[in-house]
Amino acid sequence: MLVLPAKVIVNPVAGASSTRRKWPVISRLLNHIGLPFDFEYTEGVGHAIELARLAASDGYRYLVAVGGDGTVNEVANGILRSTNASTTALGIVSTGTGGDFIRSVGISRDYTTACSALTSPRRLSIDVGVVEYQSKGQTLERFFINAAGVGFDAAVVRETERLPKFFGGTIPYLAGLVRTLVSYKNKPVVVRVGDEVENCRVLNVAVANGGYCGGGMRIAPEAKLNDNLLDVVIIGDMGKFELLKELPTVYKGTHVNHPKVSMKKGTHVTIESPEPMLVYADGELLGECPASFRIMPLALSIVV
Q1: How wide is the angle at C-alpha 181 spanned by C-alphas 180 and 182, nearest 5°?
Q2: Phi, psi values for residue 162, rounded to 5°
Q3: Contact 26, 93 (CB under 8 A)
Q4: CA 25 to CA 84: how far, in whole Å?
Q5: Is 4 helix (H, G, I), strand (E, B) or coil?
Q6: CA distances for 33 relative to 29, 88, 96, 122, 134, angstroms
Q7: Judging by DSSP bridges, how do beta strands 284-303 and 268-272 pair with one another?
């Protein structure tokens, strides 16, 4: 039987376009560890989804994403939309600015270490979230593997996308956060988690599969990637100065002790608002509410 090599999907503009510079080194590392591979560059937003879908459907059983959280999300979406999702594994070399998913899954941020693990026989089966949202009058769906949500965080993602990404990690997120703080207003929502309904005014609602977002914020400290549940973190009607005061606690995960923060777990979540409210997933802005979220248990295999 013919065994195809791995398909490596490289986003050259990830990490403030540093991935283009790093790729020759990463390529040599992959050769050094003895991983046979073909590679393709992505050419724009959404391209990695199609590259990954075609590769998985054409018989590649191992896809490696080289880029940031957005690239990993797109490659995962491509695998999950393919005809061979259940038999295709995902490897990750993180070269982006955030690196939130790899924090949850335990993959090294150092790309030399990450490359050396790509020939590991170990696989971690993780749950996958599905978000249904509105965009330009259409109802669309997107898979997410780390975290999604609505409200303030989505507005921060919008501002962050407008900023030049000269720095990695937390800095672009914090710059977007400061810009969002100036004009953002909390919004009324109806949140349904299973049979439980909550009407409230919120700053933000996070629907998490993994624990981290925003370049290291531990938004859902109890989240597990393979517990068949979504962790819903509702940050209530918190004011701007209150938010700034509490911001350091989000990095520790102790924000969940604040009286205006509540946590729920479930397999199905819906969020509606009478006001326009943005939706994001895995650091990418998608569209608007109403939105629904559900879990697909153990739907993706990660090489660790």
Answers
A1: 90
A2: -80, -15
A3: yes
A4: 30
A5: coil
A6: 6, 20, 22, 16, 44
A7: antiparallel
For 128-299, CATH number out of 2.60.200.40, 3.40.50.170, 3.40.1050.10, 3.40.50.720 equals 2.60.200.40
DSSP 95: -
Please tell me whether residue 161 adopts helix, strand or coil conformation: helix
Tokens of 267: 């397999």
* Pairing of β 204-208 and β 230-235: antiparallel
Q: Give buried/exposed letters for 158-188 (b at 16+ CB in 10 A, else e).
A: ebbeeeebeebbbebbbbbbebbbeebebbe
- Residue 123's SS3 state is strand
Instruction: Please give the biggest Cα pair distance in the chain.
Output: 63
Global pTM reads: 0.92
**Annotated domain spans of the chain:** 6-121, 128-299
Closest to 224 (Cα-Cα) out of 294, 127, 122, 296 = 127
Helix or strand run (H / E) with residue 283: none
Instruction: Give pLDDT tens digits for 103-157.
Output: 999 999 999 999 999 999 999 999 999 999 999 999 999 999 999 999 999 998 8
Other Cβ atoms within 10 Å of 46 Cβ, number: 13
Give 152's contacts (C-beta < 8 A, 6+ positions apart).
Answer: 180, 184, 186, 203, 204, 235
CATH number 2.40.50.1020 is the correct assignment for the domain at 6-121: no
In one-letter notation, the amino acid at residue 285 is L
